[in-house]
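Entry 14. Ran structure prediction on the chain below.
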Amino acid sequence: MIKESVTVLGTGSMGSALAGAFLAAGYRTHVWNRSHERTAALVDAGATAHPGIADAVAASPVIISCLTAFAATRESLLGTDGLAGRDLITLNSGTPAQAREFAQYAQGEGARYLGGAIKNVPAAVGDPSTLLYFGGDRDVFDTYAATLRVLGGDLEFLGTEPDLAALYESAVGATLLPALLGFLEGAAILASRGLPASTMVPHSVKWLRMIESLLPVLAGEIDDKDYTRLGSSVELFHTAVADEVELGAETGVDLSWHAPMHELLSRAVGAGDGARSITAVIEQLRTPQRSTL
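Output, structure tokens:
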């Protein structure tokens, strides 16, 4: 059975996955992309591609934008007079401030706005375990919950503030790059002995599961500002800095990306938090000394 119409703006790897999921679920799917040729595969699968964004917006009551950032979405929509009366959902990256600004723009154009984030890779779009969370207009979320569930089975409405998805995206995503860099560093250390990275994977998985089990304790200490329960002190990590320097020299691996972390540990020790849990370092993050960005 053919379902209602949905428009997807942006057919990069994630946007194409979103549109493909809607097509597979029987939705009349309209797509637009700056490079029109990148819609060809979706057209072959049954989507309707529009060379002009105004026609794509006019084709559906709900518009799902998966362009690179809020600025790109707004720039693409400028001059489009058809947003009034439509529901606009974004699934792109950006800061909370950018999300708030975009929400004001969308509402000023007469659209209802819902900001969202999808927490998985394109290949996992449609998987029951894939998480999507949203902030903004509750009526839009409720109206399209079944439609959005096509993209992932785990939906969460965070609240009515339009920047909440961007806020949580930034907060949760903060773990990604350090974790990836840590894995790459580990692989480089093993490579210095001629060992393949694949031999590390089972141990890394167990290590990450251990970290997962600690997250409720970490969050509890942070929320209570009681940095005593974890058992791994700031000083324990600070003492290990010398060993890290020696390890880098022994293996020939560049560990200079650790320097800002070492600085945070030193500041925490200097503040008298050496005996407290590593979570006490958050007090240094709350009062940064300088920005390196």
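Strands lie at 3-9, 27-32, 48-49, 62-65, 87-90, 112-119, 131-136, 154-159. Will compare against last week's run tomorrow.
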